[in-house]
């Protein structure tokens, strides 16, 4: 088993996740989006939102795929809560089956001991990732077993006892028809030979529901998403659906059948596992689910088997099956121990923090595969999180502290010069989440963050002499940080919660869509300075290798180890500090037709805005440079370029 460190265990205990059913958690207040918005109770089903992950198979330690699915599901659930939906987020563990029994035997443990160890690790990972689920279903629980037997009885009219003779895939725990076995050279996905078996089983009349399922998929485009997976399901349904074996007699680690059925059988692991969604919500409560978030490799079980079971039981179908892709390595290869490219999510979170990991998971459309690169993760942190959002909050708090006595200043008259388009942000984020597109959601919020940064630089409140005008600008700036923090809370709950408190805000009592337009803070509320939300992590050697974040990385650049421009020895190159900066202003060099003079914001950890010269005039217009993210060598001694003092060197595709 993968041992999780003391920090993971500590967080798990702090947030009450070991176990979840323990007494109310002590310690820090709940993070934004971890609880439903405190609005009047609404029993209207239109206001409920029920979302689930696929439950984790308790046969080994958690990996990147588990972390990825948990994060994107949690992001969607947090947004639903902040939007005023009565939300339930269900996850859990799939603890039965032959593979688990075999693994336990190989390790010299009982199956129960094995699954208990695995569940503890899964819960600790969820805690480390700040995954705020509402219920954790274990398929070994008495409640779940009872629900499985109830479902079995409801579908019993389509169940017959027959003998099966053929091929069995132990990895997938399913029978394989002769033609499919032959097509895959009688081996499973891992190259292990299929087993020839003869077994008496209960069979479910799956084919009886083929046309109904197909009609539902065709009539409801949102049922299977994204569209590529929907097309895949429709293609599956072009082939005849054979009877499905739903019991096993070759092992006993499973849910026993209801009275009246053969006591020597246990339920097929998939009818057992899928029923967890009903265990988490009785029909008439949260059921049907609004969204099952699943991996694309289990779409058949969810898009064909599950609807058939529900139809046979007379129960409504879930609204959407959202099928995410795999987490690949930086080169696009599937992670495997054989290739040696497996990334440990616990180590990544311990190195960079949960917010950075969560944000990176949401950088790409979850319907496709996610290429995981530690370098790309650091650049995303340094750019959008540190130079963008974190720097904006830091500036707002610092200005309010120095100019307004660390209080929220009064509003100005006719404050319609807003830092960003709030209505546009509401529309864009709502549209993204209706499609469960967390990447489009993140992109929309970051676009608003960039607009707020530009607004700040354009207005330059630090230069405004009239106190009432300056206060009006700073009030709008604090309001912008408050709103952006709420919208970012599903993605980066720790930083957003901290920022909310720093700008004098309180947890919202109304849904996001009902928040006022830049008038949510209380005049006179305390503004509190704190540590840098996201300290930039230096990227050494032109972005190839990474410096790990240091505990004191939030200091300014007064202790920077400067390197001469002309110093080209290997030792000096390895000492280069390359950080992400944002161009906030640019103008043509008055004495050179090849150079731009630029103001680049490197973030508070590197002294804020610097003037740097670049040779980009042959590649970009002045307007093209505004708000562009660039790499800057930040620890070079100042050098004059045609008389202009450049305090760093810009590295760009056009100049690299």
TrEMBL record:
<keyword id="KW-0436">Ligase</keyword>
<dbReference type="InterPro" id="IPR014758">
    <property type="entry name" value="Met-tRNA_synth"/>
</dbReference>
<dbReference type="InterPro" id="IPR014729">
    <property type="entry name" value="Rossmann-like_a/b/a_fold"/>
</dbReference>
<dbReference type="InterPro" id="IPR041872">
    <property type="entry name" value="Anticodon_Met"/>
</dbReference>
<dbReference type="InterPro" id="IPR023457">
    <property type="entry name" value="Met-tRNA_synth_2"/>
</dbReference>
<keyword id="KW-0820">tRNA-binding</keyword>
<feature type="domain" description="TRNA-binding">
    <location>
        <begin position="572"/>
        <end position="656"/>
    </location>
</feature>
<dbReference type="GO" id="GO:0000049">
    <property type="term" value="F:tRNA binding"/>
</dbReference>
<protein>
    <recommendedName>
        <fullName>methionine--tRNA ligase</fullName>
        <ecNumber>6.1.1.10</ecNumber>
    </recommendedName>
</protein>
<keyword id="KW-0547">Nucleotide-binding</keyword>
<dbReference type="InterPro" id="IPR012340">
    <property type="entry name" value="NA-bd_OB-fold"/>
</dbReference>
<keyword id="KW-0067">ATP-binding</keyword>
<dbReference type="InterPro" id="IPR002547">
    <property type="entry name" value="tRNA-bd_dom"/>
</dbReference>
<dbReference type="Pfam" id="PF09334">
    <property type="entry name" value="tRNA-synt_1g"/>
</dbReference>
<dbReference type="InterPro" id="IPR033911">
    <property type="entry name" value="MetRS_core"/>
</dbReference>
<dbReference type="InterPro" id="IPR015413">
    <property type="entry name" value="Methionyl/Leucyl_tRNA_Synth"/>
</dbReference>
<dbReference type="GO" id="GO:0004825">
    <property type="term" value="F:methionine-tRNA ligase activity"/>
</dbReference>
<comment type="similarity">
    <text>Belongs to the class-I aminoacyl-tRNA synthetase family.</text>
</comment>
<dbReference type="GO" id="GO:0006431">
    <property type="term" value="P:methionyl-tRNA aminoacylation"/>
</dbReference>
<keyword id="KW-0963">Cytoplasm</keyword>
<dbReference type="Pfam" id="PF01588">
    <property type="entry name" value="tRNA_bind"/>
</dbReference>
<keyword id="KW-0694">RNA-binding</keyword>
<dbReference type="Pfam" id="PF19303">
    <property type="entry name" value="Anticodon_3"/>
</dbReference>
<dbReference type="GO" id="GO:0005524">
    <property type="term" value="F:ATP binding"/>
</dbReference>
<keyword id="KW-0030">Aminoacyl-tRNA synthetase</keyword>
<keyword id="KW-0648">Protein biosynthesis</keyword>
<dbReference type="InterPro" id="IPR009080">
    <property type="entry name" value="tRNAsynth_Ia_anticodon-bd"/>
</dbReference>
């Amino acid at each position: 088993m993968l041992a999780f460190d003391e920090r993971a265990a500590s967080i798990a205990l702090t947030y009450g996740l070991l176990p979840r059913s323990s007494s109310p958690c002590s310690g820090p207040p709940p993070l934004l989006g971890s609880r439903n918005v405190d609005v009047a109770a609404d029993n209207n089903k239109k206001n409920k939102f029920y979302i689930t992950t696929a439950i984790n198979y308790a046969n080994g330690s958690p990996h990147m795929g588990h972390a990825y699915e948990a994060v994107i599901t949690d992001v969607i659930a947090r947004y639903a809560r902040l939007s005023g939906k009565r939300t339930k987020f269900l996850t859990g563990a799939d603890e039965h089956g032959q593979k688990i029994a075999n693994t336990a035997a190989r390790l010299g443990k009982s199956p129960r001991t094995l699954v208990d160890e695995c569940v503890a690790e899964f819960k600790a990972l969820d805690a480390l990732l700040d995954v705020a689920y509402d219920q954790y279903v274990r398929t070994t629980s008495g409640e779940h077993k009872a629900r499985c037997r109830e479902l079995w009885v409801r579908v019993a009219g389509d169940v017959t006892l027959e003998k099966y003779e053929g091929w069995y895939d132990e990895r997938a725990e399913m029978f394989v028809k002769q033609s499919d076995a032959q097509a895959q050279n009688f081996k499973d996905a891992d190259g292990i030979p299929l087993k020839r078996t003869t077994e008496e089983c209960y069979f479910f009349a799956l084919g009886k529901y083929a046309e109904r399922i197909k009609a539902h998929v065709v009539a409801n485009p949102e049922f299977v998403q994204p569209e590529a997976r929907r097309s895949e399901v429709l293609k599956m349904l072009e082939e005849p659906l054979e009877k499905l074996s739903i019991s096993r007699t070759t092992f006993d680690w499973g849910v026993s059948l209801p009275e009246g059925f053969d006591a020597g059988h246990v339920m097929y692991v998939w009818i057992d596992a899928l029923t967890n969604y009903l265990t988490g919500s009785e029909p008439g409560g949260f059921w049907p689910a609004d969204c099952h978030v699943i991996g694309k490799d289990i779409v058949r079980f969810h898009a064909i088997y599950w609807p058939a079971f529900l139809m046979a039981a007379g129960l409504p179908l879930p609204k959407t099956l959202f099928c995410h892709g795999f987490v690949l390595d930086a080169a696009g290869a599937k992670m495997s121990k054989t290739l040696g490219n497996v990334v440990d999510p616990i180590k990544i979170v311990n190195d960079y923090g949960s917010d950075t990991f969560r944000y990176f998971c949401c950088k790409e459309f979850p319907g496709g595969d996610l290429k995981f690169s530690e370098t790309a993760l650091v650049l995303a942190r340094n750019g959008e999180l540190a130079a963008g959002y974190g720097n904006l909050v830091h500036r707002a708090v610092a200005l309010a502290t120095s100019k307004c006595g660390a209080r929220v200043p009064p509003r100005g008259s006719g404050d319609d010069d807003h830092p960003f388009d709030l209505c546009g942000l509401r529309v864009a984020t709502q549209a993204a989440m209706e499609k469960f597109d967390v990447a489009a959601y993140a992109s929309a919020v970051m676009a608003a963050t960039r607009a707020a940064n530009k607004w700040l630089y354009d207005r330059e409140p630090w230069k405004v002499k009239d106190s009432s005008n300056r206060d009006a600008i700073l009030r709008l700036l604090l309001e912008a940080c408050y709103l952006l923090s709420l919208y970012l809370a599903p993605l980066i709950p720790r930083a957003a919660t901290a920022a909310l408190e720093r700008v004098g805000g309180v947890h919202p009592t109304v849904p996001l869509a009902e928040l006022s337009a830049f008038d949510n803070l209380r005049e006179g509320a305390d503004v509190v300075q704190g540590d840098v939300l996201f300290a930039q992590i230096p990227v050494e050697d032109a972005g190839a290798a990474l410096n790990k974040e240091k505990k004191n990385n939030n200091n300014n650049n007064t202790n920077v180890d400067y390197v001469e421009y002309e110093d080209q020895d290997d030792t000096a190159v390895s000492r280069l500090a390359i950080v992400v900066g944002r161009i906030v202003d640019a103008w043509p060099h008055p004495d050179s037709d090849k150079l731009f003079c630029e103001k680049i914001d490197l973030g508070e950890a590197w002294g804020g805005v610097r003037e740097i010269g670049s040779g980009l005039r042959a590649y970009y217009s002045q307007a093209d440079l505004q708000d562009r993210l660039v790499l800057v060598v930040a620890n070079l001694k100042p050098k004059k370029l045609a008389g202009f003092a450049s305090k760093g060197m810009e590295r760009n595709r056009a100049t690299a």
